[in-house]
Write a structure and sequence with these properties.
Structural class: alpha/beta
CATH superfamily of the largest domain: Fe-S cluster assembly (FSCA)
Strand content: 15-25%
Number of domains: 2
Order of helices and strands: HEEHEHEHEEE
CATH architecture of the largest domain: 2-Layer Sandwich
Number of helices: 4
Largest sheet: 4 strands, mixed
CATH topology of the largest domain: GMP Synthetase, Chain A, domain 3
Distance between the termini: 48 Å
Amino acid sequence: MDKPKITEQTIWDILNTVPDPEIPVVSMVELGIVQDVQLHDDESVTVKMTPTFAGCPALQMMQDDMRDALMDAGIKRVEIKVVLDPPWTSDRITDEARQKMADFGIAPPHKLHGKTDGAMIMLMEKPKCPFCESGNTHLENPFGPTLCRAIYYCDNCQQPFELFKPL
């Protein structure tokens, strides 16, 4: 029996099943962390990834999880390259992932459309509460449980929530 042919789409499909370690309802592909895949032959793959922050504490875990998923699918040699150019931007997050984040209780970042003043935008534009969708929210702390999140509070439903920072 012949084994199924591995294609670049197969690699993308496999990686799309690998959850982000900090937001498990979103895959690393949906988060826009995976930049490129290169299939060298049926047994060798290179994946280029860009973390949300250069010093992301989950970087090794992300690399290991992607490598494990590909090797479990029969890929013999997997190279994961961390590339920082071009830098990751929150605009890379898919619309589906943004909805999954909101459903999970994390406000997705505003789309910046290429602007680089994300921190100022974050402080100027109030996110909608992911629980009640009210815009009656305020920043509690710009530093959340991870580098990529801030803590907000909804004055309508009185729930604290996290915002994935626009970057």
